Amino acid sequence: MVDTSTDFSSDLFSSLRLELRRGLLIVAVLAQLRREHYGYTLRKDLANLGIEIEEGTLYPLLRRLETQGLLESEWREENHRQKRFYKLSREGRAILKQLLAELEKINSSLTRII
Amino acid sequence: MQLLDRYLTAIKFWLPKRQCADIAAELEANLRAEIDDRAAALGRPLTEEEIAAILKEHGAPILVASRYQQDSRTVTFGKQLIGPLVFPFYWTAIKVTLVLLLIPGVVPAVVLGTQAHGQPFPQLGHALIRIAWLALPALFIVTLVFAAIDFALHRFRLLERKDWDPRQLPAAARQAKQVRRSSSIAGIIVQSLFILWWWNHGSIPYLVVSSSGAQLHVAPLVTSLYVPVLVILFINLAQRWINLVEPDWRWLPPATTVITSLLGLACLYPLLGTSPLISLSQPNGMPFNPHTVLEIHRLLALCLVSLWIGICIVGAISAWRLVAILWQSLARNRSRPTQNGIAQAR
Prior knowledge:
- The complex is a heterodimer.
- By secondary structure, chain A is an alpha+beta fold.
- Chain A is built from 4 helices and 3 strands; from the N terminus they run H-E-H-H-E-E-H.
- Chain A has a 3-stranded antiparallel β-sheet.
- In chain A, a hairpin with a 2-residue loop joins strand 2 (71-78) and strand 3.
- Chain A is globular.
- By secondary structure, chain B is mainly alpha-helical.
- Chain B has 12 helices and 5 strands.
- Chain B has helices spanning 2-14, 20-42, 48-58, 61-67, 87-117, 120-155, 172-176, 181-201, 220-223, 226-245, 252-272, 290-334, and strands spanning 75-77, 79-82, 206-208, 215-218, 278-281.
- In chain B, the strands form 2 sheets. Chain B has a 3-stranded antiparallel β-sheet with strand order 3-4-5. In chain B, strands 1-2 form a two-stranded antiparallel ribbon.
- The A-B interface holds A 38-41, 44, 54-57, 59-60, 63-64, 67, 81-84 and B 23, 25-27, 29-30, 32-34, 37, 58-59, 63-64, 67-68, 70.
């Protein structure tokens, strides 16, 4: 007999983990883009800091954040290749500040609860 | 980097037209940077297998393209029926359906109303009510079809298939010749609406032709075409769906046209010798002007012969296209390079 309860809990964990990570990844990306990056180096730097993010998630996210006015981008040549560099916009800085304050608040509350 | 070009061309096929070039350029820059980075780490250029592994990790073209859809609208009825991934296609289908219903419904009503009474608005009102009655089931069916697609994509995780291989993607030049997605979607909508109309009205043996209640009866032979025409329509619809999933099957549209043309010719052939194809009657029993009836019969015969010739021409052109595609495919297979890159001698 197939044990479906293990599959269910693993699926549930994956879905909850995804939800938990979604908002936090945005904060991480915004924070990392206080310094200019293009897609690939941003992903590499985040991975080096312990935040693995798939390119299929990161690259469209960058475009979405730019559409929302939180990022600015510019095409520029580097090592004989045209690349699109992203950095935090003025509005993005303000939002990031608020998000970090909110995160801090949630974190301290969670610490007390746990 | 031929493999990368093939991969990017496949992604572009699914991207929204407006951002297509920009997204593809950015993806290319990022992927090339990753390939260069790994090559630098290994101290040698990457093999095709290693590049394929990077692309595979990046995701199947349709999945990658779907992540760039910025339209977050959904259709929800209690629970989500159509998600943001399918919504842009659904919305296009809805707009095309409405245009296809509105133009043939409203324009003649306005023209006829202006010509007959000098007042287009009452006719327009009647036309809009008729369109609403036809539009409601049409929109319901379109919604149902797209909800089923959305359900299948999520239930069977069709976009997350791990068994795809970037090396099996067709060459970029060949992909440019693929059956366009927009053409398949437009075809699906047009064929579905036509099927819907034929299903409801195709079997009705007469049509009301004037406000006085005069009726146009068609010959029994014409009404017997109901099922064959339905078969032809379903064959065409199936071809559009198949090409939406397999755009590389360029041979399918001309092959389908050849088959449906032959079927169409076979169906119409008995009508060429049938007379009269229609009969006109008035509710008060008064006969129609014989001259008018004769003119209508002549016009119908001319239309039928023109239709016959038209189908012959379309069928012949499609057969020619089919032969050309198959010939190109055969020629390509003959000159396919071997593993060391030298074409096989035959």
